[in-house]
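Before a colleague's protein record goes any further, I have to sign it off. What it holds is a sequence and that sequence's fold in token form. My question to you is simply how this chain folds and whether the tokens agree. Thanks in advance; the entry in question is below:
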Amino acid sequence: MSGLEDRIAWLEAEVRRLVDEREILRVLQTYGYALDYGLIDEWADLWTEDAVLHWPGKLTAAGVDDRAPILGHAAIVEACRMHTHAPDKFHKHMVVDARIAIDGDTATAESMFQRLDSYAVGPQIRSFGRYLDTLARGADGRWRIRERRLEREGKRPLEPGER
């Protein structure tokens, strides 16, 4: 290859990486919008058929999380249906500072999150932590979450009747 051909090949690879990162960021950001507003079709399109979602539950006396992972596309879509959303309950799942590593048709992403809820005293952070994601590029070229693990690092106590 000539110097020009090498440069063009490098630029094409760099553009592909930037487009992939942008698409992965879109997936990470759509998660919150879809969950907060009950956008079931958008939520469903975020996940692979064999996806796994780890939402934390309560810790047992032995320090073990009491909530089993949510397995498979259909169960993850149902979890969104069962979650609170606007206009019945307003909250915002926000994701920031995503660190993305792409390896061919798979990727990992580590990002920080916070959930903002409305309380009698005004909006406050309900919980915060990080998401650890594994993503896969589908046959259609779209990136989807294969596994998401939510690691909650802090949480406000629930108020009576809150879920």
Q: What stands out?
A: The longest strand covers residues 122-137.
